[in-house]
Each structure stands twice: as structure tokens, then as C-alpha cells.
Amino acid sequence: LEQSKSISSTVFPKEIMYYKSGIEFTNILMLYYLIRLEKPQLIMETGVWTGKTSWTILRALADNGSGHLISVDLGVKSSCTSQLPIKEIGGFVPQHLRSYWTLEIGDAVKLVPALLKEHGPIDMFYHDSDHSYEHMKFEFTTAYQHIKNNGIIGSDDINLSNAWKEFSRSLRDHYEIDNLFGYGHK
Fold first, then answer.
1. Residue 120 to residue 73: CA distance in whole angstroms
2. What is the pLDDT of residues 44-102, one digit of tens each?
3. Rg (CA), the chain
4. Contact 127, 136 (CB under 8 A)
5. What pTM was estimated for this model as a whole?
6. How far is 181 from 186, CA to CA, in rounded Å?
7. Which of 23, 114, 120, 163 would bridge 137 by S-S if both were Cys, CB 3.0 to 4.6 A apart?
8. 39: Cβ–Cβ under 8 A, 6 or more apart, which residues?
9. What is the pairing mode between strands 42-46 and 122-127?
10. Angle CA(177)–CA(119)–CA(61) in degrees, nearest 5?
11. Rounded to whole angstroms, how far apart are CA atoms 134 and 167?
């Protein structure tokens, strides 16, 4: 109860209002409050692109007063046919939040297992990179082995393949919001 009072009195970051369009905003809102409530200390995410999701995670960690995010991105400055709308991968992340952040550029297939092994058990993993069935399944099963008991695993765009639906059956509990954002506990 005390925790929910603390969160409800928190003013939602005004910067996030740049992304107030429908489902995308819902995903960001859910991710922000999930981190505020659960207070994970070590989070890994895949897929950075502009850094909107990274910013959301980092802002929640800063509002919690502690934590660190390790982000993995392929480093390609285009998505489908659209060009990156900012100058760099993760460019939306302001300087004052970067002390909570490590950005690793490279192939998630190689980096994710190595980083998980290096950093030990993590509190949360969030997928937002290659949304093919094979890659999502790879990331979920790889990360799951390195998540602490009661840790969180989540994903954006869960509707793009059956990987989340199949994987989430192994979780203690799991949720789907708008059929696009999913998370659960180990």
C-alpha cells in the first residue's frame, strides 16, 4: 500500500508525452510503472534505435534512485526503410540519465549471452529487437536462464510471432497489454 501511494504521487515524466500516440504510449507507460513498482536494479534490453524505450527505463531507474540498464543494439541506423530520426543510436537519452546506462553495439546473438554471463543474474530483461520468431525465442530462453527468481521478463511487439505466447507459459505469471506488450515473472 505504501509503495502504491508513493508511485501514485509521482508526476509522470512530461517528456514521455512526445510519444502519446495510442498503443506506443501505453507500452511506454506500462514499462515505466512496472519498473517504478518492481524496482529492478539490473536490467538488460535489446533494441535501442532512437532510445525511447531506453529513456523510459532509465527515467524510471532515476526516479527510483538506483539501478543500471545494459542495452544491446545492432547499431544499424535504419529500421525497415525509415531513417533514424536522430543523429545516433539512443540519441533520445539525455546526458543526465547516461550514468545509469551502458550501451553495447553488436549482434545480440553474440553479445547477450556474453553480457549475461559477465554481469551475473539480472532483475529484468526486455526484448525490443529483431521480432522474428527464432530471435525472440532465442532471447527469451537465453535471458531466462540469467534472471533472478521472481525477476521480470518482458517484450514489445508480442503480436509479431508466437514466441511470446509459447514462452510465457513457462512463467509464474504473465500479462499481455493491448496484445503488444507482455511481461511476466520467473
1. 20
2. 999 998 888 999 999 999 999 999 999 999 986 555 545 555 568 888 888 999 999 99
3. 15
4. yes
5. 0.86
6. 17
7. 163
8. 64, 67
9. parallel
10. 45
11. 12
